[in-house]
């Protein structure tokens, strides 16, 4: 689907008492849609007889597809180690990282020739990528997302990480994958809630930068939530992925901290981490987008008509209807995000559907006003 490619230059300058090193490294990775990914005949992983692979796999995926996946590797007489991990934010942890790292060290992959393969949702691909970035200071890895969230967001960029001290992705790295392989077969067995979870990121990118995609969701979103196999799904997912990559590719290492893809990620980290047993990442992102839109309306940034469309789609996609939001609690997240964004808030707000502006003067009062508007809309819906 896409390649990311950069130039390589090395330039060393010397002057009295100092040496300046400059190095830009070239890399590229491929995001590829492949049906029947674990078909021996097409050999999507480019295996040779007798190869070795360390595979990190979600426990549910292992139950559903483990036999097929193992049969694929056996077809090449491939020596494999399967690290089976339960999904969920609680397992995106230092203890999980150390367990995988220890098993990987015993298996002892070749630093260049034996990529780690991560098969699962965002938790698994984030974990696998972070382990790969640390082991021997970096070994190749291949991401195989099996959730809608993984397809449209978690696996297609270069960020990896784990949660630490109740902070989301506090430990992490920028580590380009060798490849990202997308097989929509996995989506057919997703529970409805995890389909809704993935649409949280689709809702985000459509609202902040892609009006035609937003309109597609208005026309088809309700049906797709109930049946992810509908033909229109491919169009919606492809548009969402392309939208995301258009923003990520020029700024993969986040040198520019003004990022429209941070929409939905000002309040959501603290919402998610404070209740990760009951709210999923995409649900928290969607709630953040809804609240941010209500704040934008309270500040006369968007019109009432636009807010009605946003709230209507929010309800149609069956996102969480949470009435309890504390302004002091959410303000803590704003202060933390300022540290993450170079000392400024840099909060993207929709000015209309598909367009945005950044603000740096959000107040606690703004949050309170936004909560009040959001609660009125939620109460009216109920």
From TrEMBL:
GO terms for molecular function: 3-dehydroquinate synthase activity; metal ion binding; nucleotide binding. One of its GO terms (biological process) is antibiotic biosynthetic process. Residues 198-330 form the 3-dehydroquinate synthase C-terminal domain. Its cofactor is NAD(+); Co(2+). Gene3D superfamilies: 3.40.50.1970, Dehydroquinate synthase-like - alpha domain. The keyword Ion transport does not apply. InterPro entries: Dehydroquinate_synthase (IPR050071), DHQ_synth_fam (IPR030963), DHQS/DOIS_N (IPR030960), DHQS_C (IPR056179), EEVS-like (IPR035872). Signal peptide: none annotated. CDD domains: EEVS. Residues 84-196 form the 3-dehydroquinate synthase N-terminal domain. Keywords: Cobalt, Lyase, Metal-binding, NAD, Nucleotide-binding. This is 3-dehydroquinate synthase. It comes from Prevotella amnii.
């Amino acid at each position: 689907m896409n390649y990311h490619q950069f130039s390589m230059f090395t330039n060393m300058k010397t002057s009295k008492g100092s040496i300046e090193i400059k190095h830009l490294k070239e890399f590229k990775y491929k995001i590829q849609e492949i049906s029947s990914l674990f078909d021996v005949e097409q050999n999507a992983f480019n295996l040779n007889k007798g190869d070795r692979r360390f595979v990190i796999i979600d426990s549910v995926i292992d139950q559903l597809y483990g036999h097929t996946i193992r049969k694929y590797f056996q077809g090449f007489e491939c020596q494999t180690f399967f690290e089976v991990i339960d999904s969920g934010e609680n397992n995106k942890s230092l203890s999980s990282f150390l367990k995988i790292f220890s098993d990987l060290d015993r298996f002892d992959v070749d630093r260049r020739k034996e990529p780690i393969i991560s098969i699962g949702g965002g938790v698994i691909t984030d974990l696998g990528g972070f382990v790969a970035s640390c082991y021997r200071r970096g070994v190749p890895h291949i991401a195989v997302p099996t959730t809608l969230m993984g397809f449209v967001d978690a696996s297609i960029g270069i960020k990896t990480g784990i949660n630490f001290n109740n902070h989301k992705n506090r430990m992490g790295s920028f580590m380009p994958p060798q490849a990202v392989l997308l097989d929509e077969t996995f989506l057919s067995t997703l529970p409805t809630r995890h389909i809704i979870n993935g649409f949280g990121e689709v809702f985000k990118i459509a609202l902040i930068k892609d009006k035609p995609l937003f309109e597609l969701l208005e026309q088809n979103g309700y049906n797709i939530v109930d049946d992810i196999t509908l033909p229109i799904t491919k169009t919606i997912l492809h548009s969402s992925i392309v939208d995301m990559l258009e923003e990520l590719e020029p700024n993969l290492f986040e040198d520019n901290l003004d990022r429209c893809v941070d929409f939905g990620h000002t309040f959501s980290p603290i919402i998610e981490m404070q209740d990760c047993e009951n709210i999923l990442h995409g649900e928290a992102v969607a709630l953040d987008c809804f609240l941010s839109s209500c704040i934008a309306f309270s500040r006369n940034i968007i019109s009432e008509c636009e807010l009605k469309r946003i709230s209507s789609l929010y309800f149609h996609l069956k996102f969480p209807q949470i009435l309890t939001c504390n302004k002091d609690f959410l303000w803590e997240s704003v202060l933390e995000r300022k540290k993450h964004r170079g000392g400024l808030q840099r909060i993207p707000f929709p000015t209309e559907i598909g367009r945005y502006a950044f603000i740096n003067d959000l107040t606690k009062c703004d949050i309170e006003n936004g909560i009040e508007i959001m609660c009125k809309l939620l109460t009216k819906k109920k």
